[in-house]
Amino acid sequence: MTEPPSGLSSPDVEVKSLQLDDRPESESADSGIGDGDELPVPQQILISNVTCDSFKISWNMESRGQDRITHYFVDLNKKEDKSSNKFKHMDVPTKLVAKAVPLPMTVRGHWFLSPRTEYTVAVQTATKQPDGEYAVSAWSEIVEFCTADYSTVQLKQLLLKAEAIAGRMLPFTVFYRNQQREYFQPNSQYYRSRDAQCCRMLPSVKDNSGSHGSPISGKLEGIFFSCNTEFNTGRPPQDSPYGPYRFQIQADLLFNQNTNAYFGDFYCMYTSYHYVIVVLAPSGSKGDIFCRGKLPALDRSNNCFLSCGEEEDGSLSFRHAQDVILEVLYTEPVDVSLGTVSQISGHQLMSLSTLNAKKDPSCKVCNISVGR
After folding, report:
1. Strands (E), 147-268
2. Is cis: bond before 104, omega within 30 of 0?
3. Whether residue 88 sits in one domain with residue 219
4. Would residue 208 count as lying in a domain?
5. Residue 268 pLDDT exceeds 80
6. What is the pLDDT of residues 91-147, one digit of tens each?
7. Number of domains present in the structure of the chain
8. Are 140 and 76 contacting, i.e. CB atoms less than 8 angstroms apart?
9. Does the structure show a pLDDT above 80 at 88?
10. CATH of the domain at 126
11. Who's near 298: CB < 8 A, 6+ residues apart?
């Protein structure tokens, strides 16, 4: 727990790690710690003001023994399940000790709190004795809560990191999307992201690849496109991890003066190359409304990743960043008849697939202080 930012009234609380043994809910943290029978037990735990790496906590307790309380013990644990965050720092103690202060108090710390992660928390009151030992109350009830997504503050931190490595801009003319043959066949039963009758590609909910706290994962619907080109040819690469059939569409049909652009994520997957997600949403669309206030907006004609400029003759020109792999998430249906489908001559490089890919939590290039 550290000093809360301006606008939060919670007290400045010093937090230290405290090695406590696992215990049944009704027992104190350590039988060797002093008798705390006269200390009040926290009741009706309330969690509020939850962010991606902090929360406020308060509770009620009987007046008996309150004057003896010098510290609070906070037992914070990640709620384990099959989809739990595999990258939590397991060596960091989650048993915390804080000096007793007026409630609510803010628990803050990216070293033990991860975004979009479920936790359980319980509290004891304690008295520090002259010999340095503690007398403690029984544990409170256990309550559950989930940390929040990255806010625009954290996303802007990611944006600055991504801008630092984006490199020079290269021209391109088409967006493209690779899939298996069945994806483009009418009435195919293999893919649900097609409206076969109307020959449209339909948006689907973004998976959980990338940064753990990205607000678009599992929430924003869209269709992923690429626009990266080979440096020596200026054309899309012939290899793809997603299938040997490629849909190509002229860039101005998806990205024009009526399209808003947003920064969505920046990550890597234990490799030397990095990915940037740019969201393209037609102005006023469902996707555009979702992105407003959640994602940093990009200047359509002047940003480091994906730009749309207007030439003197009124035509549009497009550029993409050279040194990152762009994933462009378009939030609306796309009519297949607006483009072309052909088979590529390269290979399926499955190692490059980002489907549900996990971000490298140790990378200093694409991680920020609040975690993955």
Report:
1. 169-172, 174-179, 194-195, 200-201, 204-205, 221-225, 245-250, 259-267
2. yes
3. no
4. yes
5. yes
6. 344 678 889 999 999 998 767 788 999 999 999 999 999 998 999 999 999 999 999
7. 2
8. no
9. no
10. 2.60.40.10
11. 261, 262, 263, 278, 305, 306
